[in-house]
Amino acid sequence: MLELRSITAGYARNAPVVRDVSLTVASGESVGLLGPSGCGKSTLARVAALLHRPDSGTLLLDGEPVRRWRHRAPREKRTAFGVVFQQARLSADPRLALTDLIAEPLRATGRGAEVPGRIAELTPTVGLTPDLLTRRPHEVSDGQLQRACLARALVLRPRLLVCDEMTAMLDASTAAALVAAVEDYRAATGAALLAVGHDRALLGRWCDRTVQWDSLA
């Protein structure tokens, strides 16, 4: 279970974009976080994934308070999360071929020997063909790059996925394919999901429940 209690967070001193927000995602549950652009939901998603330290409040993972963030968090906590961001081109190293992009988390955690097997297993599930794997981000479409970013998020077999506007910049067919890939992974593993977005219809179809941003404060 993931629990955020009274989280306040921001990027500038004395200017929080998230104020006193609480949210819970139970094991295996899919929760949609619905709100307009600029409300702070992406910041809360980064806090939830241990990528941004809050100014105040408590985050609990399986009932235990998290005390360290980003690279200082214990590996077992960091690797419990898989994150897919809205803008794939900002979250992908432009120097890496897609196969190396997907393999980044395995190599960073000393599991490079698993790369060939996981690449072969994951790329068909996200809709990437072998000819795309040797290309770099500028050589593929936004949808193809986001497929690679989803594979990267899944490569360590996380038990909680955070999808921050994952489909916002994609065409309808690619968005549907990525949502289906996430749901296939969740069905196979029991992983939980926090899906952040502003599309009420999508979150309503995708998630067990949807939480309106203005109801959290």
How would you describe this structure to a colleague?
- The structure is a single chain.
- This protein has 217 residues and is of the alpha/beta class.
- The chain contains 8 helices and 9 strands.
- The protein has helices spanning 41-48, 75-78, 88-91, 98-108, 115-126, 142-154, 172-189, 200-206; strands at residues 2-10, 16-25, 30-34, 56-61, 64-65, 81-84, 160-164, 192-197, 209-212.
- A hairpin with a 5-residue loop joins strand 1 and strand 2.
- Helix 5 crosses helix 6.
- The model has no long low-confidence stretch (mean pLDDT 93).
CA radius of gyration is: 17 Å
Structural class: alpha/beta
Arithmetic mean of pLDDT: 93
The number of helical segments is: 8
Biggest sheet descriptor: 5 strands, parallel
What is shown here, in short?
By secondary structure, this protein is of the alpha/beta class. The protein has helices at 41-48, 75-78, 88-91, 98-108, 115-126, 142-154, 172-189, 200-206; strands at 2-10, 16-25, 30-34, 56-61, 64-65, 81-84, 160-164, 192-197, 209-212.
Record the SSE blueprint.
Layout: E1 2-10, E2 16-25, E3 30-34, H1 41-48, E4 56-61, E5 64-65, H2 75-78, E6 81-84, H3 88-91, H4 98-108, H5 115-126, H6 142-154, E7 160-164, H7 172-189, E8 192-197, H8 200-206, E9 209-212
Parallel strand pairs: 3-8, 3-9, 6-7, 7-8
Antiparallel strand pairs: 1-2, 1-4, 4-5
Helix pairs in contact: 4-6, 5-6, 6-7
